[in-house]
Design brief:
The chain is an alpha/beta fold and about 230 residues long. It is built from eleven helices and five strands, in the order βαβαβαβαβααααααα. Strand 3, helix 3 and strand 4 form a beta-alpha-beta unit. Helix 6 runs parallel beside helix 11, helix 8 crosses helix 11 and helix 9 crosses helix 10. The relative contact order is 0.11. InterPro entries: CheY-like_superfamily (IPR011006), NreC/VraR/RcsB-like_REC (IPR058245), Sig_transdc_resp-reg_C-effctor (IPR016032), Sig_transdc_resp-reg_receiver (IPR001789), Tscrpt_reg_LuxR_C (IPR000792), WalR-like (IPR039420). Pfam families: GerE, Response_reg. Keywords: DNA-binding, Phosphoprotein, Transcription, Transcription regulation. This is Response regulator.
Length: about 230
């Protein structure tokens, strides 16, 4: 992905917001905005037609909101290579959590500066890191504590039994927001070995990326809110 152009679709119901993000992203080398959508249904259609690497997805949109659009994209095996980056504001925590549980790869505040936006798009396209790991962890802990018995948690709790002890250990570190390098240092193994383990965990749990692994780790009870 580092040597390839990151293809992006921008989904937001406000013309000025879409235009602004388009101007920002098109000013960066290696990022190409290939399409725009005004609502969730159009976002799904554009993702299906264009197969972008990343969909920048607003939450509150007409016809189909960003959470449902994310879920539809994630449930389509033909769109396995499409990553969703949620655009949000500070007062939408609950919606962001639901979007992560639906399969979004991360989230970013709408008032992020241009460099943060471009970096987030590249990170999400790679699928191997979290956006704002400490904030993601706080967000997930808050809502898992309030809603500990979701069907997602029950499903992931059952699937977690397929993991080895080492895989559970690595999953718990992923849930703390550690990178592959940091996990390798903690366990005294190479980052490449960590990456292999994470890929196996994602395959076993049918998870799209690290953000979904974090949700599974908390909702299944492998990691407790407030724990280390």
């Amino acid at each position: 992905m580092d040597e390839q152009e990151v293809r992006v679709v921008i989904a937001d119901d406000q013309d000025i917001v879409r235009s602004g993000f388009n101007l920002v992203l098109m000013s960066y080398d290696g990022i190409d905005v290939v399409g725009q959508a005004r609502d969730g249904k159009e976002a799904v259609a554009k993702a299906t037609e264009l197969l972008p690497d990343v969909v920048l997805m607003d939450i509150r949109m007409p016809h189909m909101n960003g959470i449902e659009a994310t879920r539809v994209i994630r449930e389509n095996p033909d769109l396995a290579g499409v990553h969703v980056l949620i655009l949000t504001t500070f007062d939408q925590d609950e919606y962001v959590y639901d979007a992560l549980a639906a399969g979004a790869s991360g989230f970013l505040l709408k008032d992020a500066d241009p460099d943060e936006l471009a970096a987030a798009v590249r990170v999400v396209a790679q699928g191997d890191a979290l956006i704002e790991p400490s904030i993601t962890r706080r967000l997930i802990e808050t809502f898992v504590a309030a809603r500990p018995h979701s069907s997602f948690g029950i499903r992931s709790g059952t699937i977690l039994r397929s993991l080895t002890d080492r895989e559970r250990e690595i999953l718990s570190l992923v849930a703390r927001g550690l990178s592959n390098d940091e996990i390798g240092a903690e366990l005294v193994i190479s980052p490449a070995t960590v990456k292999t383990h994470v890929a196996r965990i994602m395959n076993k749990l049918d998870a799209h990326d690290r953000a979904q692994l974090v949700v599974m780790a908390y909702e299944s009870g492998l990691v407790k809110p407030g724990g280390k």
